[in-house]
Structure formats: C-alpha cells, structure tokens
Amino acid sequence: MSSDDFVIEHGLNPERMPNHIAMIMDGNGRWAKKRLWNRVKGHEKGAEVVREMVRTCRKLGIPILTLYAFSTENWGRPKAEVGALMLLLRRFLVSEQDELTRNNIRFNTLGQTEHLPEDVQVSIDIVKKLTRDNDGMTLNLALSYGGREEIIRMVKRIAGMVESGHMAADAITERTVADHLYTMGMADPDLLIRTSGEMRISNFLLWQIAYAELFFTRTLWPDFSEAELIRILKDFQCRERRYGRVN
Ligand code: IPE
Ligand code: IPE
Ligand code: MG
Fold first, then answer.
1. What SS3 state is found at 109?
2. Which strands, in side-by-side order, build the sheet including 20-24?
3. CB 150 near ligand 2, within 6 Å
4. For the chain, what is the mean pLDDT?
C-alpha cells in the first residue's frame, strides 16, 4: 500500500501532511508508578511505542520524525535509571537495524552523543552508516540533547568563522544559524507533540519550533498509539497556519 493510500484510508488529506513531526515522549515513569512498578518498566513499554511510532510515521509517508529520547538534563537522574535507559538504547540500536533497513529509514542523532557510553557511540555509528543512503524517512533520535547546548555550539562555530575571517558578522542570517544546528539541512518541525499532560518544552528544539503547531495530550507515552497520532494529525490538518500574516 502506498503512503497516500494509507493516509486517505485514515481520513487524512495527503496534501496537508506535516513534513516533520517532533515528539517529546514523556510519562514513562508515571505509567509505571500507576501500576506500582519500577520506572524502568515504563521505559521498556515506552521503547515499544517508539518502534510503533516509527513504523506508523513511515507508513504515513512523514519525511522526518524526531524523538526526544534523552535530554542533557536527564543525566541528573539516578544512576540506575540512566543505566537502564542506556541499556534500552543499546537494544534498540541492535533490534531495529533490520527494520530501519527494510523500511528505507535513515537513522540520525541530535545531541552530544560523545557523552554516551563508548559502546553506544560505536553502535550509533554502525546504524548511521548502515542506513546512510536510505531516503524513505529520516529518524532523528535526540540523545543527550539540549536546545540551549545546541545554540551555544552553533554560536561558537559561527563565532569561530567570524574570528578567523571566513565570515563577516553582518553576513549572518537565519540560514547561517540553521546550518550550524544538529538539524542542519532539515525542514523545521511542523508539528510538536508532547505526551503526559505537561505543558512545557523542556529544552527541546528551541530554534526549530518557532512556528511548529503544538499538541499536548494527557496520554502517557507508553499508552500513545497510532490511533491517537492520526487523531492529532486530523486536528493539525484543520489548523490555519498564518505565520503572522492575515488570510
Ligand atoms: C520520559 O518519561 C522518558 C525520558 C525522559 C527518558 P519520564 O521518565 O520523564 O516519565 P515521567 O515524566 O517521570 O512520568
Ligand atoms: C523531557 O522529559 C525529556 C525527554 C522526553 C527525553 P522530562 O521528563 O525529562 O522533562 P521535565 O523534567 O518534565 O521537564
Ligand atoms: Mg518526564
């Protein structure tokens, strides 16, 4: 089935689909707590939902999916929880290789991956290389990602070019900034979804979401589903995006 058929079958308009969806996958801990389970159980179920969302977005023909998996601030969680998240990441990088290849998905990361355990960095490089030429969809996993860190990194790089005489300060444009972020060369998210009912951005894609449509759902990430994503997309397609102008 082509992605247009899948889109139409679910009552969506193929001409109004987002180019880039970003998701703040929140609520794993509370999902587990409600069941009197360890938080890690929530992350495990959350990882299954990640797989489902990647598959769904691919079927929908979404060109870019960006998932917030681990923030710079998340390093401050208990060591055992960070360790469990790294283990899930390791597993994901192995278990999804076939799926990503089969579905023509390019794997990419956003963030300070140099801070991740070394074996995880090696696995990331392997999956990136393996999927480098895939052009069906780009999956960005934000890992050790912080929007402010990304901005500082960009400023340092541009300042370096100015300092060395490779660029005039006056020549800096929005394009220059965008080209020095982790998302260089990618369209900005049209749609940002946060699960778990929190109404905040938590340091995610600060520059890139300037004109994204925001959706907050009370659903906890481990309960998020294809059906809910499709409902959100229907709502998205009804929104009028004015970009400051009048229609
Ligand atoms: C999101 O779920 C996953 C990560 C931040 C890694 P949480 O672990 O933040 O779950 P809550 O917010 O405590 O319920
Ligand atoms: C945001 O969730 C980060 C990720 C989903 C990876 P958090 O649970 O870490 O954010 P806060 O603490 O609610 O801001
Ligand atoms: Mg949370």
1. strand
2. 105-110, 137-145, 64-71, 20-24, 191-194, 213-216
3. no
4. 98
